[in-house]
Amino acid sequence: MKYTQIKKCCLILVIIISSSLLQGCYRNDIRSEDIKVPQLSGEPCAKVILRKLSKQKGIKEVTFDYANRLVSVSFDSKLLSIKNLEHTISGLGFDVKARYKNKAEAYLIPGDEKARKRLSPSCR
């Protein structure tokens, strides 16, 4: 083998090894969070939220608890944060009771007024 052929083989080997090592470094960080949505009264409201959230990359599962007015979301926290989800829901016209990080206190993120007008009366 010539020197250039050996050099090419070594380079290819280094590329293969480094790419396989880099692929193993990415780790999914799936988190589940509950988001309080005071206007979540039933299935029509849930459909609006589900349609929007299911289009976002990183969403794994969305479930609804109508009695407690909660949206439970499982998502990849490497791609999304809880704040992204809260503001997406408020952008649909729903108020969101958000929590401060590591605190039990909540604050209100008001829903977008223009979007709220497009919601069915039961969701306003």
Mean pLDDT: 85
Describe the biggest sheet? 3 strands, antiparallel
- Kindly, what is the distance between the CA atoms of the first and last residues, rounded to a whole number of angstroms? 76 Å
Q: Please count the helical segments.
A: 4
Strand order, sheet with most strands: 1-3-2
How many structural domains? 1
Output the helix-strand order: HEHEEHEEH
What is the CATH class? Alpha Beta
Range of strand content: 15-25%
CATH topology: Alpha-Beta Plaits
Percent of residues in helical segments? Answer: 40-55%
Gyration radius (Cα, Å) is 22 Å
CATH architecture: 2-Layer Sandwich
Specify the overall morphology.
Answer: elongated
Based on helices, strands and strand pairing, what is the structural class?
Answer: alpha+beta
Describe the protein in words.
By secondary structure, the chain is of the alpha+beta class. The chain has a single domain (30-119), classed as Alpha-Beta Plaits (2-Layer Sandwich), CATH 3.30.70.100. 40% of the residues lie in helices and 23% in strands. The protein is built from four helices and five strands; from the N terminus they run H-E-H-E-E-H-E-E-H. It has helices spanning 3-25, 43-53, 82-91, 113-118; strands at residues 30-36, 59-65, 70-76, 96-99, 106-109. Strands 1-3-2 form a three-stranded antiparallel β-sheet, with helices on one face. A hairpin with a 6-residue loop joins strand 4 and strand 5. The longest helix has 23 residues, at 3-25.
